[in-house]
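explain this:

___
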Amino acid sequence: MYAFTYTHPASVAEALAGEGQFLAGGQSLLPSMKLRLAQPGAIVDLNGIVELAGIRVAGGQVEIGAMTRHADVAASREVQAAIPALAQLAGGIGDRQVRARGTLGGSLANNDPAACYPSAVLGLGATVVTDRREIAADDFFQGMYTTALDGGELIRCVRFPVPQAAAYLKFKQPASRFALVGVFVARTAQGVRVAVTGAGLSVFRHAELEDALNRSFTPDSAAGVKIDDSELNSDLHASARYRAQLISVQTQRAVAQILSAKTA
């Protein structure tokens, strides 16, 4: 490590009054600092700000504070009742230690290409609420580790519209438990949304799958879509072609899961 200043504010106003890198759960920032991939000169620890955590369901939306832990989302009966797929997704992030410390806001601000939460935010058409504005999910994720957030902008909460139905299927990278490919499928009043994580430089929606499923919401319809692998990741874990196959298979399984839950 190296020298840096550290502050531990008790309110959002106090956090915004200072300068430095925001620290949420620390699951990405601290390892990066240890490896000197990140070297902020000042750290603003958000863990003492009570107003940034919590879950509220009202008006057809689930509002989750930015500092809410993955484990708390997974265990929330309100989330389990309103958006079961979101609770299930949170319960499958990393391991128990990561879920106990990692936060929704930290995951979104970091925007790891293989993170799970971005697929739920994009798949559900959520809204990211900051200290300055509201950002639609379609505008928030802009590239590898890149978001629409400006310097010093703080995520306060995320508002998830309650869908008609949703499912998240993840093929894990066994060591990191990040998504080799994860697919979030949601049926909403505006149509089907399909968000893919782990396969590209950032989370993205798959227009062809959405079009096919809007015409016919069946696994066979998803299977009939040819997945273009020309812009997908290819690395030591999986080729682009393999990831394309996983997108297709995971989407089919997600649709089947939604249909099965509907008839249960």
Remarks:
- The chain has two domains: 1-45, 52-263.
- The two ends are 53 Å apart (CA to CA).
- The chain is about 35% helix and 25% strand.
- The chain has a mean pLDDT of 95.
